[in-house]
Amino acid sequence: xxxxxxxxxxxxxxxxxxxxxxxxxxxxxxxxxxxxxxxxxxxxxxxxxxxxxxxxxxxxxxxxxxxxxxxxxxxxxxxxxxxxxxxxxxxxxxxxxxxxxxxxxxxxxxxxxxxxxxxxxxxxxxxxxxxxxxxxxxxxxxxxxxxxxxxxxxxxxxxxxxxxxxxxxxxxxxxxxxxxxxxxxxxxxxxxxxxxxxxxxxxxxxxxxxxxxxxxxxxxxxxxxxxxxxxxxxxxxxxxxxxxxxxxxxxxxxxxxxxxxxxxxxxxxxxxxxxxxxxxxxxxxxxxxxxxxxxxxxxxxxxxxxxxxxxxxxxxxxxxxxxxxxxxxxxxxxxxxx
Amino acid sequence: xxxxxxxxxxxxxxxxxxxxxxxxxxxxxxxxxxxxxxxxxxxxxxxxxxxxxxxxxxxxxxxxxxxxxxxxxxxxxxxxxxxxxxxxxxxxxxxxxxxxxxxxxxxxxxxxxxxxxxxxxxxxxxxxxxxxxxxxxxxxxxxxxxxxxxxxxxxxxxxxxxxxxxxxxxxxxxxxxxxxxxxxxxxxxxxxxxxxxxxxxxxxxxxxxxxxxxxxxxxxxxxxxxxxxxxxxxxxxxxxxxxxxxxxxxxxxxxxxxxxxxxxxxxxxxxxxxxxxxxxxxxxxxxxxxxxxxxxxxxxxxxxxxxxxxxxxxxxxxxxxxxxxxxxxxxxxxxxxx
Lengths: 338, 338
What we know:
The structure is a homodimer of 338-residue chains. Chain A has helices spanning 23-36, 58-75, 92-100, 106-110, 113-124, 134-144, 158-174, 216-224, 245-253, 257-269, 274-300, 303-332, and strands spanning 10-15, 41-46, 83-86, 150-153, 184-187.
């Protein structure tokens, strides 16, 4: 922790600890995080308060937190310049959530389509927990706590950023003080990466993901099984490149543009088989993943370094949170005892 | 703060800081608090997180917190043996609220008629704040935090205690550890004191309250204006004692049973005027309030003692809360880094 304040603008971003990260996370978010981690002071948050689906299975949460931190280190996030933090390790998040919630009417949450969908799903199961209404407010508190200027997010999180901006404005106006900046969102290069099965979104639960931790052989097998162009029955049939997951991955992860263009040209003409396209994709993905695997091995052999990154980051974030809460209390004049 | 743990069982109870306390508070709650404050280790809580109606007017909350503490000292609560605490001064309340909320479905809250009524009222105004769902969970967290065994409450709060017991059982069962005792409720001698206007409940907002801080003259004027038996037009008409607010107050506050019985007998026979009944009631109330006024004057002249009581109590409660949260985290196994 530096003794002098960090002069950089701040980023707050994060994930829920629901398991290992995959290629979709990389192009949708991590890539930006890595790119911006020098320019900004970054707070990378693991949102364990917000894990509704298995709040009764903390062993899984515990394992996932470690997995996420390991993934972050593996992709090259640097805990020396940035802060890896566990949400519940900064209980000020709950405190700020509580206060902010008085000024947000339910209707404001219901404008968020992602939330509406989740809510409908829970209602079907007759099991909306009270905390369900807190978690979007908790996300607001997460962002406002370090006074983040920029929030790299997935596309489906844009309404949350809008809500955060609205709450920041409301707080500043109500207490006549510019406590919180209005954060800007930053969507990743590929807002939503298709799954290996052609589904619109890569996700663990759909079993259509290539994980950052997959080994070479697993990647090869997953790529071989990928959905391509369903209208193309033989290698000599002309194929479609547009909307074809295999070529979307080539575009996203194969830095050899000549190779990709050549494959596309031949694919359209029916002059290349799926096997060649997929073998080259697997090779590109493996080349992309190799340095990630190398760093992962390094940290896997040194779990104390992973824990230390979480410990140091959470501890620093708590110091920052306490400073923010002191300002919040001062603005609200709830320092009743002086 | 004692260096050795207090061996007494614990009480948690409190009020929202919505203004000065009145006779209804006394017979509904305070009387029990005073009676039990030696036998139990008492946590008297001022619930400033839960003030929805004027969350945008913290100056009023600030004033009310001081008023409530002054009222408590005036009635004889002893901050040496008990703890006066400000809810938001123990942010662990927000933290515990957050966790517990995952295991309480909305339906459980909706079973509470008091909440349902409040909710309906807010819906009419199209302004249900997100925090509305938190505050009942916050009350649960308030009670569980010091592991209270007994909760002296108003009658309308009984469903909240039932909810608290259910959450305690659920937590203990889920994490296979007896972290929280199931608290028992204790309703006051007079669950609900009628207002001076005959309304079912004395309350500040209905302008039918005699406050613990009212001076002699004010009490006399309020008693003179009291609603009595609407069927009795002249002092010589036979009157009704049952359901007559003036006699309800005599029963509650006049320790001279012979005088009360004599007045009742003559009232039923039409042999006493309202003036005599009311003058004697005012005298009894003023005799009851005199020692309270005396202590109030003492503390009014020494505001630092009031603040010190709040400061010491809140600080002690926070120590207790941190110990409870350590246990909660341990039971939930969310000491990820520990």
